[in-house]
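Notebook p. 47: complex prediction with heme C.
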Amino acid sequence: VTLALSSLAVGAGGVGALDVAAGRALFDHAWVFAPSSLHGQSGLGPLYDARACGSCHANAGPGRIVARLGDARGEPDPVYGEQIQDSAAPGVAPEAVVSLGWKDVAGARTATARLMDLGYGPLAPTTHVSLRRAPGLDGVGLLDAVTDEEILSRSDPDDRDGDGISGRPAWLVDGKGGRSLGRWGWKASQPTLAAQAAVALRRDIGVSTSDYPEAWGDCTPAQRACRQGAAAMRGRAEASDEARDLIVAYLRSLRAPAGKGADGAGEAVFTRAGCAACHATLTTREGAPVRAYTDLLLHDMGPGLDDGVGEGSAAPAEWRTAPLWSLRAELDAGGLLHDGRARSITEAVAWHGGEAARSRARFMALSARDRAALETFLLGH
Ligand code: HEC
Ligand code: HEC
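Predicted complex, structure tokens below:
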């Protein structure tokens, strides 16, 4: 970043336009390897997938697919860690080349990943690969302004109302006896935007923060060259709390996607088909409606969407209800659902099982006219 961060006043007077501009610059900043003459701008890797937030979320839009790793209980791979990093500092072997493809089974497309040139031997037999696409970030500030109480008011883990839908809060325990409510990421495994930014810095870019002080990011002890190369930087956060908070200020400033406008007919079909039971309209602390169409709760979506990976509070078949307010942009960027496999709203709904099976059946039984109204409501014109 070519901005002198120390000269920017943060905090006292709230978040100003200057913070947002500095945060945006940091979001697009291409990190370089340490050591470099400028502290606070270096620390890339040793293993990484990208140099900048903006290379996966260009203009804060949806984008790249990464290969996450884990087993059903949420343990990372013992050698490769939580994610495949396909790039590395000089002298350190990249983990793999991820070759993404698609497989068509009876008209339904699924995503496949082949890991080629594995740099550290085979994955553990219990490790599953879960492809995750970078979601668009427009509107995250509004979702951030929804209170935990509002999310919890819709949770019904034991399905007491008997509608077959049991949204579960993504409680995260911190090891010190405290707990926080997860809301970010496909499995709602991060509680705050600051936590999500810190984990992205660590896992995607290999940059340490006060939350994750180890300079080696997602390198495991089995990856010796990576650990040794990074050891010299030990204990010094490569990104300061100030830098992380400026990135968060930028994220909070991202406006909600343009509204869908009044489309009573399509919205009525959406509600009638049971979509709104999960894809709900929450309200902010100030009482403003957030038309993201998510309850920010976890739902069991059945075997078709089970990725074999537990994460945070989520079981392998559980996912956070995905927001639906940028579907057009998400489709243009490649596809819907966590791995981008669905090429249309109909394909996305066809994958809905588990708690959403009843709603899927209602969707499939809609007349062509009602389905068109629903699609117009969700995509705009
Ligand atoms: C290598 C690609 C990549 C990079 C670099 C990256 N992200 Fe992401 N981002 C993703 C993916 C993939 C997800 C979904 C993660 C998941 O849930 O598995 C994600 C999720 C998010 C989310 C959660 C959005 C939501 O609706 O829950 C936020 C916020 C975010 N990223 C911000 C950032 C910031 C800030 C940075 C830079 C510090 C960053 N990302 C860097 C790929 C990337
Ligand atoms: C039981 C809760 C539930 C119900 C009911 C439900 N959904 Fe979903 N929906 C989800 C979850 C969870 C995801 C994320 C799944 C994933 O990515 O693997 C999702 C994802 C989607 C997506 C993809 C969004 C994206 O950006 O990738 C679309 C489109 C969608 N749902 C539309 C609908 C429609 C239309 C209905 C009604 C016919 C409906 N859903 C009913 C929970 C539900």
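Notes: The pocket of heme C (ligand 1) is lined by residues 27, 49-50, 53, 55-57, 64, 66, 68, 132-135, 137, 140, 184-187, 193, 196-197, 200-201, 204-205, 247, 251 (CB under 6 Å). Residues 1-13 have pLDDT under 50 and may be disordered.
Next step: compare against the earlier run before touching the bench.
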